[in-house]
Amino acid sequence: MQNVLGWLRQHDVAGLYTGAIANAIDYVLDGARTGRYDLQSREVHPGERASVGAKLEYEVLRSFSLPKAAPLDTLITGVPVDIKATVGSNWAIPSEAHCQVCICTQIQLGQNRHRSWLVRAHTSWLYRGKGNRDGKRGLAVYARDHWSVALYDWTPLPVNPLTLLTPAQASRVLAKKPGQEQRFTLMFQYLAGHIIPRSVISTVGAGRHDPLRRARNVRNRLAQDGLTLLCGKFPQQRDTAAAHAITLGPEDWIALRTDGEHESAR
Q1: CATH class of the domain comprising 161-257
Q2: CA-based nearest residue to 251, from 212, 203, 207
Q3: DSSP H helical ranges for the chain
Q4: What average pLDDT does range 71-83 have in this prediction?
Q5: Confidence of residue 128 (pLDDT cuts 50, 70, 90)
Q6: What CATH number is given for 2-156 in this structure?
Q7: Where are the domains of the chain?
Q8: Dist CA 248 CA 237 (whole Å)
Q9: What mean pLDDT is reported for the chain?
Q10: What share of the chain is helix, strand, coil (3-state, %, to 5)?
């Protein structure tokens, strides 16, 4: 436990987990193909929500440059470690991880936040007797609260800007008709001042040809409405955003009001 904890504390665990969870959610939603953007939507099957944890394992390994290694999920300083996550309130600890070191992550979708613990999953701290058909057992809340190590406290998850739209706005932005450019124009107008990740561009243009080019094409339309469209791919446009105290990543977009009355990016 001490060796694994020492290794983890050499990393920005909260930051790396935030990115890994966001990637896992994007993977499950598959917005570029399905047009979905909200994991809590009725369009998302409960089984898909539950699968975020399975995908997260691989995102964590990639983010921390860890190997996929038996007998559990990975090895940290030579110690077998199981990586578990839940979008509920508890974890299903498999029989092979009983009495082993686990990283347990809790994701609260409704509040857009997450937290993680390092715990040795002693069988005396697990419940459900012999477990379910796969031998998986839950971790007692008392054990989590008193005999685990908090890796980080509640940490915000990125909010998909599309979830900020009203139902009427979302129906217009995500409609199959009219064309992409008109819908991108509406999106940037509705979400002026909000950073728009590339994944959102792909979601709005789901199944259509070259949505990034279509998004670039609306710059003149937005200018007529007093909006300046910036894309983080270009250093000069990143500098323009920075002058307004906004940090754009290389795949981020934002529409700013040029009259000095734009809202701060959120």
Answers
A1: mainly alpha
A2: 212
A3: 2-8, 13-29, 31-34, 46-50, 52-63, 141-146, 167-173, 180-190, 198-204, 211-216, 219-224, 235-243
A4: 97
A5: low
A6: 3.40.600.10
A7: 2-156, 161-257
A8: 9
A9: 92
A10: 40, 20, 40
